[in-house]
Structure formats: structure tokens, C-alpha cells
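FAQ: What does the model actually see?

It sees only this:
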Amino acid sequence: MSFIQVDEMNFDEKLREEFEKQQIVILKFGSTYCDACMALEFELEEIDDKYEKISVFEIDCAESESLTEQYGITQVPTMIIYENENSILWHKEGVVLAADIKDIIGL
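And it is asked to produce this:
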């Protein structure tokens, strides 16, 4: 697993770096003590390990309150998929299976 740990201090810079590499970026908003967040992490690991053009950002809502507010996160886990820097492809609360994420991205 090679999720990119981001917080309020490095988020914009890391996001810009991944878009420059033409990556699809998945934002995973969660919490350390959330069982559903761990289940989503397991599903995202399957995708992150297989596809080089996908970057997964892991954001702890308790540690990044302004990012959580900026993206309107009201429930964890929440996943947001950026197709590119100008286009959010998908936004979903709850656990999503790896097969469904692949379908959404078109893999």
C-alpha cells in the first residue's frame, strides 16, 4: 500500500504534483477508529496496488478539519475521485467495493 498521507499543510502541493503526472486522484476521508474506513481502505489497496495511474490520498478528518469542511464531508468514510484537476468524477459516502471503483474509473 502506498497511499499518500496528506493534511492541510501539504494537500495543495501534493494534489498539484499528482495532476502534473496526469494521475487519477482518489481522496479518502476517514478516521483512525472507523471500521468502515478500514473496509474502504482494504478495497482501495486492491486498486492502488494494481494501477500506476491512480494515486490515493488518505486524509484524517480529525487532523484536517479545514479540508473536511472545504469538501463538505459529513460522514466517514467518504471518497472523492478526481479525473483531472478540473473534474470530480465521483463523490460517495460509505464503503465502495473495488470492482465498483474500477467501473466508475473505467478500468
